Amino acid sequence: MAEEKTAHAAHQRAGSETEGLGGAAETVKNGVVRSLKGMNEIEAEMVTLVRSTVSDTLKATGSIATETVNVARDAIVGALQATGQVGDGAVVTAKAVAKGIILGVQDVGGDVIQASSTTARAAVQAASDVGADVGMVARRAVDGIIEAVSETGGNAGAAAKAAALGAIDAAGSIGGAAVSTVKELLIGIGGGLKEVLGAILPTPPKPER
After folding, report:
1. How far apart are CA 100 and CA 156, in angstroms?
2. Which pLDDT band, with edges at 50, 70 and 90, does 21 fall under?
3. What's the pTM value of the predicted model, to 2 decimals?
4. Pick from 4, 26, 177, 206: CA 20 to 30 A from residue 11's CA?
């Protein structure tokens, strides 16, 4: 009888622990879902802000071709400087800002392909200036550029190529290690664009035996 009571008590404790784990899992899951929703909302707000700022500025200057470079650079530098003290925030920001820039340029009839190169270049330079992860910022900026061009029905392949070359060129002014890091991360972009980027990004030379 004593053994039965002991076994029953053990079973109850095990059941209680299982329920506790289940409750913890549910709490964590709900918290993560809320956080992800919050991040998505913040990213969407950044895209809207940058898009309107870029398009309004370009309209005001009346010189879209020449001012796109300055506007794109100022937008991404300002955004990354603002998030430079929060680590991975710069990586999240890079995609949203890059997407907003491209959409803003598209709104005023600017050259989206040229803007793709300019934006990726500015992202790499700004990331280096604020001490962010250059490779990841470049990758996320290219992601944002491709997403924006795809949404507007543009040539995503051409935009990806221009953005990749712009990012690599900017990385070259930082150092060889930055170039290698940017190339490796850009090659990692999935989908049909992987082949596009793989064709234009030189592969590192194989070590001599």
Report:
1. 15
2. low
3. 0.73
4. 26
